[in-house]
Amino acid sequence: MRFAARLTGVLLLTVGLLAGCDKAQIAQLESQNATITITASDTLAELFNVWDFTEITDLDMMNGPDDPTVYLYCESVPVVGTPPPPPIQIPVQTAWQHSLRVSVLRADSTEFEQISDDMYLSSTANLTPYDDQVIFGNNVTKSDLTVMDGTCTLSGDSCLVDMDCLSVPSGGPVDTCSVVLRTFHWANGTKRQLTAINRNVILATSNPLNDFDPVTYGFRNGLCSVSIDPGPSSLAGAPQPFTFELGKGDTLKVEARKALNSPGFVDQMGNPLTVIEPKLVGRLAIDGTNITNLGGDASSASVVGDGFSFFYSSR
Q1: 200, 231, 246, 280: which sits with the fewest CB atoms below 10 Å from its CB?
Q2: Cβ(135)–Cβ(46) under 8 Å?
Q3: What pTM was computed for the model?
Q4: What is residue 300's three-state secondary structure?
């Protein structure tokens, strides 16, 4: 009898607590944290051997090198045994612009409500995450490199001997070639492999070796990238993923579509750095758990400008 009395008391207390909650409070207790992440995958990009290097030239006679900046040095990785050897391409995800719309049909409504910002509807507003693979292999030590770098005293043109400088009118000052020896040092043990669309590589659009000798130390032979950096991965400037509350009985609809062109990832010849049109892929997580039983299709085709649309009903 005492147990039954205690049970009856607990039930009455529970009913009393629920009676004191309004509908909004009950909905909040039943809501789930939902996150949507958009990626672009199933494409290939070139693999580079990458080193950190610095110029250790000291021309100002002050303590330490003139330029303490750490640069990236990239070398193409060729396919072994294929003449002429093409560069190695590996599977990657890539940064790609896309539009996005997220809508919810609430349990007590008959119409979908767009909950994502109108800014997300622009095909260039959002950018999927970059490839972030870092592959470590056998370290290959590179010896310090010393090169001759000359500048014409009057014109500022690059030169190695006086004859490389343009002649001047008779009686005028003589333009001569001022040559200096520049020494570069590769940090030991920092060789790694990154792809051409890793953002660290995209940002490395200049180094002093390429600046004075772009023929010898151009793209794939020292210079890592010639692409324009489209900025960090984001949703209209806000970080991914897209996060919101999904109530019990709500139905979610997610629509996304790729921009027609890659976001400026090109080599020196204007060719894209990815060799296959990527697929745009949407992923939904509820309270940290990835959801796989989605209605519709959460992946686009590898077709220019294609998109996807998927649904999910919260139970």
Answers
A1: 231
A2: no
A3: 0.78
A4: coil
